[in-house]
Design a protein that fits this description.
With about 290 residues, the protein is an all-alpha fold. It folds into two domains: about 140 residues, no CATH class; about 110 residues, no CATH class. It is about 60% helix and about 5% strand. The protein contains 15 helices and four strands. The protein has a two-stranded parallel sheet. The radius of gyration is 19 Å and the shape is globular. The N and C termini lie far apart (about 45 Å).
Length: about 290
């Protein structure tokens, strides 16, 4: 019996900003004054009470779970039952209170909040962390679709929380030093970013080819890009393999993805969110670079 497939990624309609791929690549692993300025702007959008709560392990966990609650009341009620099954009903009021405070925040402010809360979440007991990871997976799948924020959150948890439970995941050696066995995986990631900001398949294909030809991947003929719907399982498998690649391969994929995102002269918030998730998996930290989202 085959395991059920996870639903495809759903890209939200969000704001965009002009951003050159070269500037994006230069920002990898650095913190510029402009990045600090943008981060400050996002921080100002977050209520001060939330900023205090997110420094407490339980408070940060509640905030994180609250950002996954659906706007649809029926789905939200199902999610709350899932949370109660994991943690009992003692967190319900705190999570609902956090939901009301966070529901109107833009995606990037939620991601910034996640970044602030991760150090506190890492202080939770191993038992709570295991429950948290399991609960996050269930909450994300409640409505049978996965948006880009949920995907980025899942990647952040996998990279920054899973090692607390199992430190050996941080010690995985490099397994790939050549592009050739990873070309299909590179194409999957670049195509996913191209699709995130493109209005149709033709535009996504143009973005994909632009990205491919603008990086070290250009030495290889581009594979046929995926269609305009990419399954979360396929993307996850590609990222998991690329996480084991040598640094030059990771950089080439990230560079191709950045060029694919900016093929039309701008990077949308959807593209920026997916780029952040990709960079996180590949261990290439990037600043919060898109203003106003």
């Amino acid at each position: 019996m085959t395991a059920p497939q996870k639903p495809p990624l759903v890209a939200p309609t969000l704001q965009s900003a002009t951003y050159a791929p070269e500037v994006f690549m230069a920002s990898v692993g650095t913190v510029s004054p402009k990045a600090v300025e943008y981060a400050t702007e996002w921080k100002e959008q977050i209520p001060s009470k939330v900023l205090e709560t997110v420094r407490d392990p339980t408070g940060a966990m509640c905030m994180l779970l609250a950002t996954l609650l659906s706007e649809n009341q029926e789905i939200r009620n199902q999610q709350l039952i899932t949370i109660e099954d994991s943690f009992g009903n003692k967190l319900r009021s705190e999570i609902l209170s956090a939901y009301e405070q966070l529901r109107t925040l833009p995606v990037y402010s939620k991601l910034y909040l996640l970044k602030l809360g991760l150090p506190a979440i890492q202080l939770l007991s191993i038992t709570h962390l295991k429950k948290l990871i399991s609960t996050i997976d269930k909450l994300i799948l409640t409505d049978n679709k996965i948006d880009l924020y949920e995907f980025a959150l899942a990647q952040a948890i996998k990279r920054h929380v899973l090692p607390v439970i199992n430190p050996s995941v941080l010690r995985r050696p490099v397994q790939y030093y050549s592009f050739r066995p990873l070309l299909a995986d590179c194409a999957m990631v670049v195509a996913a970013v191209a699709n995130a900001g493109a209005p149709n398949y033709a535009a996504a294909k143009t973005a994909f080819l632009r990205g491919w030809s603008s990086s070290a991947l250009s030495q290889f003929p581009p594979p046929q890009p995926a269609g305009n719907t990419i399954s979360i399982d396929a993307l996850q498998q590609a990222l998991d393999k690329l996480a084991l690649a040598a640094p030059p391969i990771k950089r080439a994929v990230l560079e191709a993805a950045a060029h694919a995102a900016a093929y039309d002269g701008k990077i949308t918030a959807s593209e920026a969110t997916l780029l952040r998730a990709v960079a996180d998996v590949l261990g290439c930290p990037i600043p919060f670079f898109v203003q106003g989202v």
